[in-house]
Amino acid sequence: MGKAAAGESSIHQDAHGRWHGYVSMGFDENGKRDRRHVSGAKRADVVKKVRALEDRRDAGLGALAGRGPTVAEWLDTWLTTVAIRRVRPKTYESYEAYIRVHLKPALGRHRLNQLQPEHLEAYYLSAERKGLAPSTILHHHRVLSRALKIAVQRGRVSRNVATLVDAPSVPKTEVVPLSQDEAKRLMFAAVGRPNAARWSVALALGLRQGEALGLAWSDIDFEQGSLTVRQALQRQRIRHGCPGESCGFTAKKCPQRQGGMVMTEPKSRAGRRVIALPAPLIATLKAHRVQQHAERLQMGEVWQDNDLVFANEIGDPIQPRKDWANWKELLRDAKVRDARLHDARHTAATLLLQQGVDARVVMEILGHSQIGLTQNTYQHVVPVLARDAADRMAQALWE
Predict the structure, then answer these.
(1) Which of 23, 112, 195, 234 is deepest in the core (most CB within 10 A)?
(2) CB atoms within 10 A of CB 114
(3) Residue 308 and residue 215: Cα distance in Å, rounded?
(4) What is the pTM of this model?
């Protein structure tokens, strides 16, 4: 290549013997001509670099091959055009917070195509020293990796550097369920309290908090003795519903506001499930329905008919924070050790496995999408089951 016409590539040798190549990549986002320079000690090396740039330009990646978007710009683009269509609102809120509070301040200044594995490793180390939980740092890694995966698919970068870095490790926490005796004490202590059946459902069926608080009477078939999980109560960040926040009010006062306490569908197909009810629980739920009907008559027109199995004093959904406080109060009154509300779910699964229920059936009751999740989460039950199997073999062969 020698002297080239305007817009064409060119290669020449300078006075010191070094070779230089120039490639026109088109125009950048500001309308300026983007002409790229490469150099090398050998002409063949420069020819190779020039042809590589020409290939990218011809593939429609001209301006993006050089001064492409920053990491911050790409994360914003991915969040508002890709993630918003693919994830649930609550997950989107988490992604937005991770990006705004952590990823953009730490990595946003780098050009997307200049981001290196070392940049990520330095950030993870810095976040760890600041006291961020390993699980939180892992969430940041996953969000960044998903955004970079789309960047690779769309030709913004040639590689996903997050895949070249070891993901932050999270120590596995052992599940500590309540014992059978503790579960019975809680159910006994709940008698006479508002929504007492809430805790029987938690300990017997292992429903997630949102699933229990979103449970509707229409989801319970008393004739068949079953319960269908169709929805879950979820708190979402209140946001404007008007275009461009044009109403002039804050998000909470926006006439078209969105978010707050909403009902959402299960995350997966496995989450939408039918659960057979134990006979005593059916009786408990029937008694609860009679009690709720009496409260409804007493409240009169104030009562909000939301068809909820577990509702507050006027029929509205129970706030998750209030539900958590009720659980903690119940633990104290029953003189049971402190435990997370989610431990009621672990208790139900553990008791089922200890009763000899097949792990695949437990998986379906809990709404797990994979049997491995059930088996790995409740490995603490295996020694008990192994001892029971040994005792049964002793009876079969020696007695």
Answers:
(1) 23
(2) 12
(3) 6
(4) 0.71
pLDDT at 298: 94
The answer to whether 164 touches 119, Cβ cutoff 8 Å, is no
**Both structure tokens of 300:** 């009169």
The count of structural domains within the chain is: 3
pLDDT tens digits, 299-341 = 999 999 999 999 999 999 999 999 999 999 999 999 999 999 9
Look at residue 55 and tell me if it is in a domain. Answer: yes
Does some domain include residue 293?
Answer: yes
**How far is residue 92's CA from residue 168's CA, in Å, rounded to a whole number?**
22
Query: From residue 193, how far is each of 42, 186, 330, 356 by CA, in Å?
Result: 84, 12, 9, 32
CATH number at residue 134: 1.10.150.130
User: Domain check: are 104 and 198 in the same one?
Assistant: no
How do residues 129-144 score in pLDDT, each as one tens digit?
A: 999 999 999 999 999 9
> What residue numbers bound the domain in which 29 lies?
10-65
CA triple 300-305-310, angle to 5 deg: 105
